[in-house]
TrEMBL record:
Record protein name field: DUF1232 domain-containing protein
Annotated transmembrane regions: 28-48, 54-75, 96-119
Species of the source: Parasphingorhabdus halotolerans
Pfam families: DUF1232
Domain DUF1232 span(s) in chain numbering: 30-66
Transport listed as a keyword: no
Principal subcellular localisation of the protein: membrane
Keyword vocabulary terms for this entry: Membrane, Transmembrane, Transmembrane helix
Bilayer topology: Multi-pass membrane protein
GO CC annotations on file: endomembrane system
Transmembrane as UniProt keyword: yes
Cellular localization per UniProt: Endomembrane system
Length: 121
């Protein structure tokens, strides 16, 4: 499989697992894994910013495909085929406001912890 096709399928699968996370027929554990993976992948803010050398693209190359793979292990094949079909017909990519808020909160908490440790010592 060439890289262009793999990337296209990856983008489609992100949307498909986002749909799966919202569907009542999806098993609970699959909803959790799919929801977390899709929220992370669709968040406009990365946990590890892309400008950080070596680690910046780690989430895009390893974490997101690994999360998709794990979600696919829990979603029945027939449902996933339906979700992929729906994802292929969608014109817009969804975004995750909750994931954005969570990532900003994590960065703020890290900044506060670092500041407290620097100024209390």
């Amino acid at each position: 499989m060439n890289i262009k096709l793999w990337t296209k399928n990856l983008k489609r699968d992100i949307i498909a697992i986002w749909i799966a996370a919202r569907d009542g027929r999806t098993p609970f554990i699959a909803k959790i894994v799919a929801g977390a993976t899709a929220a992370y992948a669709l968040s406009p803010i990365d946990l590890i910013p892309d400008f950080i050398p070596l680690f910046g693209y780690l989430d895009d190359i390893i974490i997101v495909p690994l999360g998709i793979w794990l979600a696919l292990r829990f979603i029945p094949d027939q449902l996933m085929a339906e979700f992929r079909e729906t994802a292929s017909s969608q014109s817009e990519r969804p975004t995750s406001v909750y994931a954005t808020v969570a990532i900003v909160a994590i960065w703020l908490a890290c900044g506060i912890l670092i500041s407290v440790n620097l100024y209390s010592g």
